[in-house]
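Hi R.,

As promised, here are both runs. First protein below:
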Amino acid sequence: MTKTLFLAAVATGLLASAPTMAQPQIQFGIGPDGRPQIGVGDPAEERRERWRQQRAYEAGRRDAMREERYDVYETRCRNITIQEEDRRGRTITRRIRRCD
């Protein structure tokens, strides 16, 4: 009896101390065609996808703000590209923005 009780306590301790991992979740929903669908999703993958979408949204906002900022100077500014050769024979390209 004590041996069985001891083995049960050890097994419970091993199972309780095992690290829990993110398990896939079963998802129920309505698909784009209007029919009910069942899927299996990974919570970590969903977080990564939300992060990717957020980063793309922020990058788009930064680009829009940059375009708004430079639209003011578009008629008066020009980009000058200078290509030079250094001592080692490599071509170096510099771009300078000149606003008149």
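And here is the second one, sequence first, then its structure tokens:
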Amino acid sequence: MANIRIGQGYDVHAFGPGDHVVLGGVRVPHTRGIVAHSDGDVLIHALCDAILGALALGDIGKHFPPSDLQWKGADSRRFLVHCVALAAERGWRIGNVDATVVGERPKVGPHAQAIRETLAADLGVSLDAVSVKATTTEKLGFTGREEGLAAMAVVLLERA
């Protein structure tokens, strides 16, 4: 029986009306909002998919379907806490996570520490087990045209 598992996740949401986006559970001021069924937190959605992938339990849409009205406008931190609990129920804990937000704006750097702290608390890990980075696509593609945001995440699960 393996003592570690790795999962990866990816999420995308389009910009729409609004004055902020939510990244890693942190409200980040922006000139646009996110179009989504929940709060549209691409970073947490990618992390959830990474955890669920490591557990071979499908994806976030299977667990929190956008067709289910109970998730309309939901705080994505609820999704993340649920995914961590699913891991714990199966004898796993989060070892570390590495996540990247992809987009021209908003700038993530000024909010990275708060995002890391929020994620560490929800994941039940120390701050040094949470990496959050950002990159642009040099104005290429939908993120480069500032039509939306994307995020990628990798998680390592360890036997509890």
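A quick note on the second one: The radius of gyration is 15 Å. Let me know what you think.

Best,
J.
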